[in-house]
Amino acid sequence: MRNLLLILLLSTAAFSGCVSDDPLAKLDDGPSLMVDVPKTYEWSLDRCDAVVGVVHTAKENLQPHVPEGWRVAAPEEQGGPADPRGDAALGVEVFLCDDITAANLTDGNSSAMKKAAYASYWTWVEPPEEYRKDDVMFHFWKWDTLVADETLRAELVAEGLPIVNGTADWDGDTDTGMSTFVNSPAGPVAYQVKLDWEEGVIGFNGVAGAPFEPKEFSFVEYQATADGRIAEWTTDAVGDFVNIGVGYVKFNPGTWGHDVTGLERSPAYFFAGDWSFTNGKLLIPPRVDTGAGNTTAGA
What we know:
Blueprint: H1 2-18, E1 34-35, E2 39-57, H2 59-62, E3 71-72, E4 88-104, E5 110-126, E6 138-147, H3 150-158, E7 163-164, E8 166-169, E9 181-182, E10 189-197, E11 200-211, E12 216-224, E13 230-251, H4 256-261, E14 265-284, E15 287-289, E16 295-297
Parallel strand pairs: 6-7, 6-12
Antiparallel strand pairs: 1-15, 2-4, 2-14, 3-5, 4-5, 5-6, 8-10, 9-10, 10-11, 11-13, 12-13, 13-14, 15-16
């Protein structure tokens, strides 16, 4: 009897070693396909002293910095200010906000900061048809972006977005000339502000005296990750009061704005006043890793 049991056990072990259609046994055959998940954030900027500079330049200076199939648009194509000094515009903006919040709806993380700065480079674009949104007023392309919260900044950098650290100074002397910000609905908005971020210092100064309309609108900003995915920032802008005027942007040498435009102290149109950005969403598409060292954008 014991001999019979031994024969059965040996036969079973030999047979199981010959089975080749076990799906688990195939997991190590060749590179695996690992699919990331999209990341979604809700975000808001509340009660912000805002200065938004529009520096006109040639389209040829900006077009190489957007993906193939995207077209840098003249500002007047989407309701922005026209200027004979250029058929495109590099926008550079800086906000100092009472509250900045962000919630990662995918992973459950959240952040909140008071009296924090936000800034970015941007331009108007005409996106490919699959990216166009009919429910927004403006389509923008966004480059370097200042995110003050360390945890959120690390998350977005890990996704490959061009997110940097920095400060906005409404008080100190700047050599880029700026030191004050007078923000009052009773009269013109005078601004002398310094943006100090990882690439260098940018200064803003001027006066915005004419009321800007509309004070409420929606827009989308597109931004590329290092591996070519296109993230989308959407929001509703609400201006308690916003004026438009003229002034100067000073791109210190070494800043990307200086490199792209070839300008150091440039005349600019400005929007300045008190703004909030609500109902914000940031959608980052998933990565697809073939397991062979190649990462591509997911659908």
